[in-house]
Structure formats: C-alpha cells, structure tokens
Specification:
The protein is an alpha+beta fold. It contains 17 helices and eleven strands. It has two domains: 233 residues, Cytochrome Bc1 Complex, Chain A, domain 1 (2-Layer Sandwich), CATH 3.30.830.10; 180 residues, 2-Layer Sandwich (Cytochrome Bc1 Complex, Chain A, domain 1), CATH 3.30.830. A six-stranded mixed β-sheet has the order 1-2-6-3-5-4. Strands 7-11-8-10-9 form a five-stranded mixed β-sheet, sandwiched between helices.
Amino acid sequence: MVNARTVRRLVSALALVAASAALPLRTAEALEIQRVVSPGGIEAWLVEDHKVPVIAVEFSFAGGASADPADKSGLANLTSDLLDEGAGDLDSQAYAKRLQDDASSVLFQVGPDTLYGGLRTLSEHQDSAWELMALALARPRFDADAVERVRAAVISEIRQSDSDPSKVARKAFYAQIFAGHPYSRDELGSVDSVSRLTADDLRGYVAANFCRDRLLVSVTGDIAPSALAPALDRLFGALPTSCPPLVVAETEPQHSGETLVMRRPMTQSILLLGEPGVKRADPDWFPAYVMNYVLGGGGFSSRLTEEVREKRGLTYGVYSYLYPYDRAALIIVNGSTKNAKAGEALALIKSEWARMAAGGITEKELADAKTYLTGSFPLQFSSSSATARLVLQVRRDNLGIDYLNRRNGLIEAVTLADVARVAKRLLDPAKFTTLVLGQPEGVATTP
C-alpha cells in the first residue's frame, strides 16, 4: 500500500519528472565535471547542463547505519525518514506545501556506510529549494506527532520484512557473516529498538554526523559555477565544521565454509552464498567486475543462469554480486529453487565457482562482457539526478574527477590473464558461507 507521505513526495516531483523526461543520454567521454568551491570552503563537483531548467543536488554524510549505537539500531534510518517532516518554523504540513508549491522534492535514505540526501528543483525555484534543504539539515523539528507517525510506518515495514522470506534470509545471512559488527544489523532496526528511540536520539544523530568534514556533494543541471558556489554555503554552511571521528572496525565475512539451514514451511528454498570480495579501490576491481559479469552478474548472459536455470531448470533466477562496503567486501550468490532440488542447485553453483577459479573465462566471454559493460554505460546518465548520483559515487569511491571519462578504457584494458588471476584469488567454493531458508533436501547445517 502506498502511504500518504509517499503520494505527497510523488506529487511534488511531477513537474521535475516532466522537465527531465527530455534529457538525452550522455556519453561519459563528453561529460565535463567542474570542481566548484564555495566562499566558505564547501566543495562540489558540477556537471553543468542548461538543456532543461532542472537542478539536481546529491550529497552524502559518511556514517550511515553503521554509525548507529549497538542498542539503537535503526536510528539513522528513522532520522532520515523525519528530515523532511518539518524544519525551522515550518511544521510537516507547511514544509510539504512549500515543496509542492515550488515543484521541488527532497529525499533522504540510509545505507550501511552513508546517509544520502537529494534535492531536485526547477531553476526558477532554486532559492526556495536551498532554504528548505538547509532547514532540513540544520534545523529539523522532530515534532512528537511526526515522530510517532513515521515510527509506526517504519515498524510496519520491519514487520512486513519479517514475513518476507527473501528479507528474512538476507537478515540472517548478514547476522551470520558479520556477527558482532555493525554490518550484522538491519538498517531498519528492530521493532524493539525503533520503539525505544526518542526525539533526543534523533537530534543526537544529526549533531554527531551532519558535519562538513563528512560531507560530499555533486550537482547536475541548469546552474553555472558562479551561482553554485554561494548556493553551497546556503545549503550546508550552517553545519558544524567537524564531527567526532567515525569508529567502525574493518571486518571480513565469518564462518567460512559453514552452512546454516533455517527450516521454514515453504515450497522453495532461498539460497545465499558468500565469501570475501574486493573493495572499490582494489587494483583488481575491474578484472573482478568483468569476471562477475560472466559468472553471475550478466543475467541471461551469465554462466550461472545458463547452467542452473537454462540447462537444468533448477531456478527462475540466480545471480552473483560484488558488494564493496567501506569496511568489508563480499561476493554473493543469490537464488531460489524447489526444496527437492536444493542440494543439486548448491552443488552446481559451487561447481561453476570452481570452474571459473580453475580456468577463468574465454575470449568470447571477455569480448561480450566488455561490449555490454561499456555499451550500457550511457544508460546510467538518463537524468540530471542519475548523473548527479553517479558523480557522487565517484567522489565516495575516491576515483578521481576524470574517472567517468576513463572508466570504459579501464574495462577494455582487462585481459584474460587478469580475470584468471582474480578468479583464482577470489573464488573458493570451500570457503563459502551458505544460508538456506526453506525445507531443503540434501542440505544440512554444518555440525
């Protein structure tokens, strides 16, 4: 069910959607990113584009859900959900009306390592948009009625996720492989922890995490550098210069080689397998990226889909993913199968893992992967907001301001030997941490 809050956000964004629809696809080679620094020293990366009268601002604060205290899981998420529920002298309804009248939208969301924010506005309303976003960051209200309403929505979401087998499996998997680390906790928190959070907790999260030394900003659209520079101070200048240091330890997946079966009355079994991967700054990232596309990241073009689904009909879908967190890295396989075929499917996945580790990929697989990964890249520049998000991720990953122009060349430079070396380094079916949810046959929890 779509709640009123979601409807309000959608309505306020309709004008932006209409204005953005005509944006042409870009090519990375034609993308110019300018570094803009405000009079107060706030830096943003700007992709200037005056084709349509839209401005998109994306920003992030380091920390995210991993910065939640152990007894207050879900704090970052609840805080983010309340930032647009009134700020300064505007209560929730007044704040929402200002956004709607200006055809602007703000959005906040939380990841494991980051709290993200986004602002979209028509150029003619930019002054009002700067004011509204600045209020949300520096003077959020956290009124009692808004806190209770949003808290109830989050608790409802948690309860729904606790009845969704895929989400139950994911939560259990992360609790197993990252036991004792903040990554083991669900970003939404638990019913108990979210029920106990107070408005003072929310204010404390903002004070401890919304600082300029944790801030990264990217902007795309109808604004010149000379206009953006002072706007950055209007948006973020009221934030404290620095926050206490983040203290989140590095970690690696635990329980290597172990299997956990969670018995549930289901007709299918959900499969999750994982082992250490590569971080984004690792020199082997691009060979691993190409390898993963061939192995399980390329959908119907991947080996796992071909062997597990197409040839044997064991699943509707099976995929592999690279997850480069700030303090850990994973490569994960996710799929589902009939209970009676769970043991067979797991054995086949591990067999494909071992085959890739032993032999790498073929020349044709390498060529096809490069064609897709470079040819599909322009689709990521489909709107001002999408471009700003991509530029922000480049900043977060510390890849360099010219990275988007170099990215396809880095993929083209990957060789068969590179992929073979990285496959041997990363892929070891004996080290899989495996979780199966359902009533699987031929699979048992490790003694």
